[in-house]
């Protein structure tokens, strides 16, 4: 039975980054950038006002001035600053002349008449956002390998980079098996349960910036499972997930179907609790996982193994283990297998602590609403004060 660490090493050897493609900005969120982005022009491209107020000459003292006009955002900058004794109304973001320019905040003025203004303070240049104060034309704004998020997408939009080059999102097919499963909208009969794994996996894939291209639920018969299996492969997924059927029961067909389709099976059990019956297989262009049917096992195996492969396919580093300390009075049940225990961060000042959450068995979904990490509990031994945690979240 392979260990979790050994399976990580194996999975790392199977996955290479997917090809690159250019996508519109709304589709690039969560993708890995695969080009260097340079500033096409100075940022900001012109001097502009950071306040609502008035534009005057740099030598203008406090006192009475005459209003001679207004500058609004989007208008070209005046050719020159106002002459001494005059002022222009200015709004935030408006373009300014390149020299001899000072500003005074609206709060530091008083209207003397409809055309005259009393400057209560001397003007200043500190409210001017200078051209190229953020970046100069040709500066690197984003390096290749950057994870694109709301902030970086906004930066790309601001410079007109509307179709960045990114690693293609992984395409995932998901087959759910189990004669006892009915849809979440159905009232289960005696002996039936609602299918939660389809919803769980779909949400985890969205969080992982992967595309769920195919998903179907079938019963336990070999024929129906094989037909659905063929349909999943016909969708040309990069990753194939099969929920259930990973053990050795009469209705566990996953290993046999993978072998029949030319997959090399690398493991069929992993020394993990929960998640022992776990299949990892591959053939050219596709990595397949047989997930144990219980939903908490799904959650653990997804974060330990599937998410790792998704990161490798994106050309990113997998989520790293974080060192932490156990919260006081933490209760853990040791096991002969390594346990990945649902937990929640319970920070105390400068010390990062985790609190193990109570879970009853691998079908227990009640714990996932609070889970923010998986606490690594060594095999056969109580975890010490210093522990490792795999950060995660439940959607």
Characterization of the model:
There is one protein chain. By secondary structure, the chain is of the alpha/beta class. It has four domains: about 5-20 and about 170-315, Molybdenum Cofactor Biosythetic Enzyme, Chain A (3-Layer(aba) Sandwich); about 20-40 and about 145-165, no CATH class; about 50-130, Molybdopterin biosynthesis moea protein, domain 3 (Molybdopterin biosynthesis moeA protein, domain 3, Beta Complex); about 320-390, Beta Barrel (Beta-clip), CATH 2.40.340.10. The protein is about 20% helix and about 30% strand. The chain has helices spanning about 5-15, 25-30, 150-160, 195-205, 220-235, 255-260, 295-315, and strands spanning about 20, 35-40, 50, 55, 65-70, 85-90, 100-105, 110, 115-120, 130, 140, 165, 170-175, 180, 195, 210-220, 240-245, 265, 270-275, 280-285, 285-290, 320-325, 340-345, 355, 375, 385-390. Strands 7-4-6-5-9-8 form a six-stranded mixed beta sheet, with no helix packed on it. A six-stranded mixed beta sheet has the order 16-13-17-21-20-18, with helices on both faces. Helix 4 runs parallel beside helix 7 (about 295-315). The protein is elongated and about 90 Å long.
| SS summary, helix count | 7
Low-confidence region ranges: none
The average pLDDT is: 92
Proper CATH architecture of the largest domain: 3-Layer(aba) Sandwich
Q: What fraction of the residues are assigned to beta strands by DSSP? A: 25-35%
CATH class of the largest domain: Alpha Beta
Q: First CA to last CA: what distance? A: 31 Å
Q: What helical percentage do the residues reach?
A: 10-25%
Q: What is the β-strand count?
A: 26
- Label the structural class: alpha/beta
Our Rg estimate from Cα atoms comes to: 30 Å
Q: Assign the CATH superfamily of the largest domain.
A: MoaB/Mog-like domain
């Amino acid at each position: 039975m392979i260990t979790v660490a050994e399976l990580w090493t194996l999975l790392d050897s199977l996955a290479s980054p997917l090809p690159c493609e250019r996508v519109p900005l709304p589709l690039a969120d969560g993708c890995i950038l695969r080009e260097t982005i340079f500033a096409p022009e100075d940022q900001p491209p012109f001097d502009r006002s950071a306040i609502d107020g008035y534009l005057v000459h740099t030598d203008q003292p406090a006192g009475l001035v005459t209003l001679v006009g207004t500058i609004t955002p989007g208008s070209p900058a005046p050719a020159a600053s106002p002459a001494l004794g005059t002022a222009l109304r200015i709004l935030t973001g408006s373009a300014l002349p390149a020299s001899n320019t000072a500003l005074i905040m609206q709060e530091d003025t008083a209207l003397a008449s409809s055309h005259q203004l009393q400057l209560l303070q001397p003007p200043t240049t500190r409210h001017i956002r200078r051209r190229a104060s953020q970046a100069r034309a040709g500066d690197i704004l984003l390096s290749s390998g950057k994870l694109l998020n709301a902030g970086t997408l906004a930066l790309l939009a601001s410079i007109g980079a509307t179709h960045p080059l990114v690693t293609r999102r992984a395409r995932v097919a998901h087959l759910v098996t189990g004669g006892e499963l009915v849809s979440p909208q159905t009232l289960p009969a005696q002996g039936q349960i609602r299918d939660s794994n389809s919803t769980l996996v779909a949400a985890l894939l969205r969080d992982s910036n992967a595309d769920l291209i195919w998903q179907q639920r079938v019963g336990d018969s070999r024929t129906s499972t094989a037909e659905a299996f063929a349909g999943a492969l016909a969708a040309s997924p990069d990753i194939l997930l099969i929920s259930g059927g990973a053990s050795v029961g009469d209705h566990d067909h996953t290993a046999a179907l993978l072998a029949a389709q030319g997959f090399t099976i690398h493991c069929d059990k992993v020394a993990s609790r929960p998640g022992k019956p776990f299949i990892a297989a591959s053939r050219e262009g596709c990595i397949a996982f047989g997930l144990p049917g219980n939903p908490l096992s799904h959650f653990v195996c997804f974060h330990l193994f599937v998410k790792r492969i998704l990161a490798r396919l994106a050309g990113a580093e997998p989520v790293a283990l974080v060192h932490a300390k156990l919260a006081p009075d933490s209760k853990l049940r040791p096991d002969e297998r390594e346990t990945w225990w649902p937990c929640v961060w319970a920070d105390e000042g400068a010390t990062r602590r985790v609190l193990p959450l109570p879970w009853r068995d691998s079908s227990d979904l009640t714990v996932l609403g609070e889970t923010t990490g998986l606490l690594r509990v060594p095999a056969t031994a109580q975890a010490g004060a210093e522990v490792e945690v795999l950060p995660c979240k439940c959607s």
